[in-house]
């Protein structure tokens, strides 16, 4: 009897018509069609490149990564020689890129936050100096800043006339040479103890926050946390017999003996890209602080909260919501800006990749490797910053 009902027979067709003419269905179809078109275009370009390379008798594929590199690299974090493969050479370049990027991020963050806070200072002179710094570093191309610092370092005195840093090191056209602790097994355990201290401080801060929300009583864990961070490595140092041997640099011939030297190329690149990024970070910090409603700060002052409590519990939690997302973009940009290392001769991934490309003639594969590596590093950086953004986000209840 139900099949005899015309209205019932039309329901499936109506449902199908509703699906076909729905906005979500059309959107999905358009996206699938666009993805297919892009895929076909990429396949056509890839086949075209392969055919052109074969026509010119140029090898294709990534088999060249297993060949002997036959060139030296002046600055490495791992053991490397000209008898190693191209793959290991690219790994050395990647590690150098990560080293200069990590150092640049730390320096840019420290300088940027200090200048950003100075931008909203009540001190007229400090505010003007910070404003002038931001305008200068933001409006000069980063590559010119890197070249400028490279020229400054290369015009420093030679090692025999190097600037003496109060007995702790030397500054010369060979870079920065400083005294360092002599190698000892205790140092690794001290680093692990420091990491454990930081983890315990973070855990204590979370417990103090839950305790404050539950009871309304504040438990100050600043000094206990600092005691953990400093005390645990100190205890490890004492347990290993308090090793205190220090390697001091000394002038020897046309160079230095002892200590640790940071190459002028590394210093120039790190200084240029970090100072350039610090100007943008300073503006991000200024905007984040000014985004905090003034009424909340005045209310905190009216109940006699200490300035550091106002900054930590009122201003900073709200400012970080504004600061972290654009700060992530600046970190990613800094990592990508490290690729201009070739202009000062620092052996980063791009510099070594260009050498590999010139020796093997396989430009497509070499550039593809570099692009893939930068893509992965940028995505990892963005993911970590997004996780941190979730941790500092204010939870609505």
Q: What's the arrangement of secondary structure elements?
A:
Blueprint: H1 6-20, H2 23-55, H3 86-119, H4 124-138, H5 142-154, E1 163-164, E2 169-172, E3 175-178, E4 180-181, H6 186-215, H7 222-239, E5 246-247, E6 250-252, E7 255-257, E8 260-262, H8 264-290, H9 294-302, H10 307-337, H11 349-360, H12 363-392
Antiparallel strand pairs: 1-2, 2-3, 3-8, 4-5, 6-7
Helix pairs in contact: 3-4, 3-8, 3-11, 4-8, 5-8, 6-7, 8-10, 9-10, 10-12, 11-12
Task: Provide an overview of this structure.
- The structure is a single chain.
- Helix 9 packs antiparallel against helix 10 (307-337).
- The chain is globular, with a radius of gyration of 29 Å.
- The chain starts with 5 loop residues before the first helix and ends in a 5-residue tail after the last helix.
- The strands form three sheets. A four-stranded antiparallel sheet has the order 1-2-3-8. It has a two-stranded antiparallel ribbon with strand order 4-5.
- By secondary structure, it is mostly helical.
- Among the domains are: 6-55; 86-141 and 264-392, MetI-like fold, CATH 1.10.3720.
- Strand 1 and strand 2 form a beta hairpin.
- It contains twelve helices and eight strands.
């Amino acid at each position: 009897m139900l099949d005899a009902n015309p209205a019932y027979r039309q329901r499936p067709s109506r449902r199908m018509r509703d699906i076909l003419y729905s906005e979500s269905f059309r959107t999905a179809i358009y996206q699938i069609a666009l993805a297919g078109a892009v895929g076909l275009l990429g396949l056509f370009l890839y086949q075209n490149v392969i055919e052109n390379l074969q026509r010119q008798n140029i090898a294709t594929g990534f088999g060249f990564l297993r060949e002997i590199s036959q060139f030296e690299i002046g600055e490495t974090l791992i053991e490397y020689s000209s008898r190693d493969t191209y793959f290991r050479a690219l790994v050395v370049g990647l590690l150098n890129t990560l080293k200069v990027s990590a150092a640049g991020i730390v320096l840019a963050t420290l300088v940027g936050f200090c200048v950003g806070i100075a931008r909203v200072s009540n001190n007229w002179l400090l505010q003007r100096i910070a404003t002038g710094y931001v305008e200068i570093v933001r409006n000069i191309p980063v590559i010119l800043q890197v070249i400028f610092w490279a020229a400054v370092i290369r015009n420093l005195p030679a090692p025999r006339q190097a600037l003496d840093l109060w007995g702790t090191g030397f500054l010369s056209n060979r870079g920065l040479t400083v005294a360092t602790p002599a190698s000892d097994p205790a140092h690794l355990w001290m680093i692990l103890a420091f990491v454990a201290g930081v983890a315990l401080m973070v855990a204590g801060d979370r417990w103090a926050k839950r305790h404050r929300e539950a009871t309304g009583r504040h438990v100050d864990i600043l000094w206990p946390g600092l005691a953990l961070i400093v005390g645990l490595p100190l205890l490890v140092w004492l347990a290993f017999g308090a090793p205190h041997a220090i390697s001091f640099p000394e002038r020897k011939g046309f160079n230095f003996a002892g200590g640790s030297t940071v190459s002028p190329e590394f210093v120039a690149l790190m200084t240029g890209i970090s100072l350039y990024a610090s100007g943008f970070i300073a503006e991000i910090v200024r905007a984040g602080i000014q985004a905090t409603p003034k009424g909340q700060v005045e209310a905190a002052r009216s109940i006699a909260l200490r300035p550091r409590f106002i900054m930590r519990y009122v201003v900073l939690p709200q400012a970080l919501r504004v600061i972290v997302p654009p700060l992530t973009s600046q970190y990613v940009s800094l990592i990508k800006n490290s690729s201009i290392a070739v202009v000062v001769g620092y052996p980063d991934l791009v510099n070594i990749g260009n050498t590999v490309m010139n020796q093997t003639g396989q430009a497509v594969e070499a550039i593809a490797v570099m692009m893939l590596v930068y893509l992965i590093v940028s995505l990892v950086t963005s993911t970590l910053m997004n996780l941190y953004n979730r941790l500092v986000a204010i939870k609505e209840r």
